[in-house]
Design goal:
Layout (H helix, E strand, L loop, with lengths): L2 E5 L2 E4 L4 E8 L7 E7 L6 E6 L6 E3 L7 E6 L4 E6 L8 E8 L2 H5 L6 E2 L3 E6 L1
Parallel strand pairs: 2-11
Antiparallel strand pairs: 1-3, 3-8, 4-5, 4-9, 5-6, 7-8, 9-10, 9-11
Length: 124
């Protein structure tokens, strides 16, 4: 199993940018599909983006397409989410996740490993 720790959250004005990082420990990171999810207060968790182990396959939720970029550095065991043109509706706790299967993250919106989350707040 992969242990995940997110960082990089904070308070930003609408239109601004943030980069989230997810540091992974464990030998399976480089072979794991990875994803980002978010959960706003009072709402259900939703899928944001996912990336295959090789970075060959990348998926985004329609709500973030064109504004967010997911990437990974397998040499550093780190997953990233570059967020630009942020909107107040992007305010949420952001979680990174890992699973053996990319479709588990994208289709089933579930994963075998989760981080503790990092708060992103976008002010209007």
């Amino acid at each position: 199993q992969v242990q995940l720790v997110e960082s990089g959250g904070g308070l930003v004005q609408a239109g601004g940018s943030l980069r989230l990082s997810c540091a992974a420990s464990g030998r399976t990171f480089s072979s794991s599909a990875m994803g980002w999810f978010r959960q706003a207060l009072g709402k259900e968790r939703e899928f944001v983006a996912a990336i295959s182990w090789s970075s060959d396959n990348i998926y985004y939720a329609d709500s973030v397409k064109g504004r967010f970029t997911i990437s990974r550095d397998n040499a550093k065991n780190t997953l990233y989410l570059q967020m630009s043109a942020l909107k107040p509706e992007d305010t949420a706790v952001y979680y990174c996740a890992a699973d053996n299967l990319l479709h588990s993250i994208v289709i089933a919106t579930t994963a075998s490993s989760w981080g503790q989350g990092t708060q992103v707040t976008v002010s209007s």
